[in-house]
Design brief:
The chain is an alpha+beta fold and 193 residues long. The chain is built from three helices and eleven strands; from the N terminus they run αββββββαββββαβ. The chain has helices at residues 2-15, 90-102, 162-182, and strands at residues 38-40, 47-48, 50-52, 56-59, 68-72, 77-85, 108-118, 123-132, 136-143, 148-156, 184-185.
Length: 193
Amino acid sequence: MKYCGFFLLLLLFAACGEDATTPKPRAFLSLNYPEAKYGAAQLNCPYNFEINTLVKIKDSRNNIPCWIDLEYKELNGTIFITYQRINNNLDSLLADAQKLPLQHTIKADAIEGDVYTNKLRDVYGMFYEVSGDAASQAQFYLTDSVNHFVTASAYFRAKPNYDSIIPAADYLKKDMKHIIETFSWENLTSNSN
């Protein structure tokens, strides 16, 4: 009995030590980006829209007219925009544009598509949001159904890890939605690609 009391007292002192470790709560990196300010994009293309003033517009690496890259240096990301004239090939352009988000289904947790219609500006299309470790978190296509077809995809220069790029992906998605909402077709006679 005497040894039992001593053992309990020793156990009590050992349990009260400050070396006890407690698990830390799980946390995510907090990234804050500047509030978006928009202005008209200065393009010589058959389309126009408003872009974030932080964006640097670059000609596409493919040197195809009206294929542009919207670079977000702070986010290490780019929105790639392509343009094609419709030449009795609207069905194949739509099929290709709708197939592109589906290529990410292997890594994606979910893909949601929202239809976009603006009859006043003659702009119709789809916006796709991709969640999960896919290479592209957002994509869209827009058309007037007669002459013009535009696609856009957001990519980051990093290995896809959805948990770590959520703030940047959300920022680009918001900007892509703004592009869609301000999108219009321009009547340029000099650019008849």
